[in-house]
Automatic annotation (TrEMBL):
Protein keywords: Lipid metabolism, NAD, Oxidoreductase, Steroid metabolism
Organism phylogeny: Bacteria, Pseudomonadati, Bacteroidota, Cytophagia, Cytophagales
PANTHER family for this protein: 3-OXOACYL-(ACYL-CARRIER-PROTEIN) REDUCTASE (AFU_ORTHOLOGUE AFUA_6G11210), NAD(P)-BINDING ROSSMANN-FOLD SUPERFAMILY PROTEIN
Membership in a protein family: Belongs to the short-chain dehydrogenases/reductases (SDR) family.
Domain of life of the organism encoding this protein: Bacteria
Coiled coil spans: none
GO molecular-function terms, A-Z: glucose 1-dehydrogenase [NAD(P)+] activity
Gene3D superfamilies for this protein: NAD(P)-binding Rossmann-like Domain
Name this protein carries in UniProt: Glucose 1-dehydrogenase
Enzyme class: oxidoreductase
UniProt xrefs under SUPFAM superfamilies: NAD(P)-binding Rossmann-fold domains
Annotated organism of origin: Mariniradius sediminis
UniProt xrefs under Pfam families: adh_short_C2
Amino acid sequence: MGRLENKIALITGAARGIGESIARVFHREGAMVILSDILDEKGKALAQELGEMACYTHLDVADENDWRLVYQKLLLEFGGLDILVNNAGITGFLESKGPVDAENPDMDSFEQVMRVNLNGTVLGCKYAIPLMKRKGNGSIINISSRSGLVGIPGAAAYAASKAAVRNHTKSVALLCAEKRYNIRCNSIHPAAIMTPMWDAMLGEGEMREKIIKSVEAGIPLGHFGEPEDVAYAALYLASEESKYVTGIELNVDGGILAGSEARPE
């Protein structure tokens, strides 16, 4: 049997990048995977590729009405939910008019990033908890970031949103523990994972290669991570192997947060 056999899992932002990799790993481990995104064509194509035990539904995580519709779908078709991965997120570089730096933030852009990254996670937890209570247990996994633990001057909105996700995770974990819901909530903090989110910062051609080498020089393990590295961390937190783990932050960052300045030469 797979590690997630007979589990119902909803993954947001599942059409590409880390969300896609989590969907593939969860599906391979036996879960019924509900992929959700606003990139409908990509999401539908992935669900079709995965085949049996996978389906796609449109979900703008910043829109509470979309969450209500997904809640009804999960309730009527599956009777509840076992696993939620709040993965959908934006940096604000491509999705808003900006800027989103710490000195001159455009507040509409700042709020847009917060609506998707923070509000989307809060709404996910809000609607997952009653669905998981129906099943008698559950695991909520919030994808934060290294940027949720350190300041990012040029991406203040993203950093603030991910820091809030980190702390909200702990609030959810404690609430569910106090009320004896048997629902765990943990956050994952990726850094330097090669996904489409990096494209705006890396550019193309020779410049891209130069920037990649520069970034990798500051990673203790010496290279970018892959989306699957985050997916396997999520698999652990989703499975019964982590049944005594709640409220933690799991770093998947090649050692960056251990102190990259101390990297041995």
